[in-house]
Amino acid sequence: MSNQTLGSMGPVETAIREKLTTLLQPLQLTITNESHVHRHHAAMRAQGGGNGETHFDVLIISAAFKGKSTIQRHRMIYAALSDELAQGLHAISLRTKTPEEVDPASAASSR
Amino acid sequence: MAQADNSVHEITSTKQFQDLLSADLNRVSLINFWAPWAEPCKQMNNVVMGLAKKYPQVLVLQVQAEEQEDISESFDVVSVPTVLLLRGHTLLNRIVGADASELTNAISRHLSGASSLSKPSSSPDGEESDEQLVTRVKQIMNQSKVVLFMKGSPDAPRCGFSRQAVGLLSDQKVEFTHFDILGDEKVRQRLKQLNDWPTYPQIIVNGELVGGLDILKETVETGEFQKMLESTSA
């Protein structure tokens, strides 16, 4: 279920949401734009403050992560977002979980 | 070639700065960004003067960071003291904070490299083949059991994520060395390719990438990180 109205997302956030949804079919995908926190930092100042879509925090719960180590999960996401990372996207904080890791009881109830 | 006695210059304008740097593109120069109100600069200024006497072939430029804003900004200098070592226009090292030993080591490394004719690892222009670069990067990854590739140094991190990584490793009482990727653009880019990892900080254990800050936090929490440290390297 989307918890953002489409109008408030910029192009980078939209791309992150679309690509990760396609790749991971997540149970939950929460993207938080943290760019304003980093706006004044030296690297961002050099870019003129960035475009307001430079730093994101991403929480994903997906069965696609099952059997994968954390570093493998992060690599999947980095690979999907390589275009964005090559451009204005400066940093992403990642939290990746499978449904079972979030709620062990769900493992018993899911088929 | 005889150098003028006056190899130390107080910079008063951007033009003067550019003219001095461009005069000899093979020359190593030391740019000391300082401010009269900053106590640590006093110590660093003394160190710089000592090095200027010891190495008269080095062009030493004293820049009051707040007065020469354009120069400070163009080199992304945000704190004082900051000392940059350049060869021509190529940035060799960035030392942030009054780290006398880091500066002294860095300058002697670069000067001995330039004067040694038999050293195959790099030409005086600082050209390095990709193979040599990869060898160098791998050496750095293995320079200690835990290596943190970060922005800045543990005493002066230049990024919140790097600062957190330093804090976490210190809290866990982990012994580590660091590499400041802001001072070496070639390593910065090549390591991203080698490790297939697009961001910094990068935490390396036993010569291999463990991950970034998020993974470090997770593996410390689960105890996995301590296990990694206990296992012996090959």
UniProtKB/TrEMBL annotation, chain A:
InterPro entries for the chain: BolA, BolA-like_sf
GO biological process: one example: [4Fe-4S] cluster assembly
GO cellular component: mitochondrial matrix
Superkingdom of origin: Eukaryota
Pfam (any one): BolA
Family: Belongs to the BolA/IbaG family.
Protein name: Bola-like protein
Source species taxonomy: Eukaryota, Fungi, Dikarya, Basidiomycota, Agaricomycotina
From TrEMBL, chain B:
CDD domains on file: GRX_PICOT_like, TRX_PICOT
UniProt signal peptide: none
Protein name (record): Thioredoxin domain-containing protein
Keywords, sorted A to Z: Iron, Iron-sulfur, Metal-binding
InterPro entries xrefs: Glutaredoxin, GRX_PICOT-like, Monothiol_GRX-rel, Thioredoxin-like_sf, Thioredoxin_domain
Annotated function: Monothiol glutaredoxin involved in the biogenesis of iron-sulfur clusters. Binds one iron-sulfur cluster per dimer. The iron-sulfur cluster is bound between subunits, and is complexed by a bound glutathione and a cysteine residue from each subunit.
Sequence ranges assigned to domain Thioredoxin in this UniProt record: 1-112
Pfam family, any one: Glutaredoxin
Record-level GO cellular component terms: cytosol; nucleus
UniProt record similarity statement: Belongs to the glutaredoxin family. Monothiol subfamily.
Gene Ontology MF terms in the entry: 2 iron, 2 sulfur cluster binding; disulfide oxidoreductase activity; metal ion binding
GO biological process: intracellular iron ion homeostasis
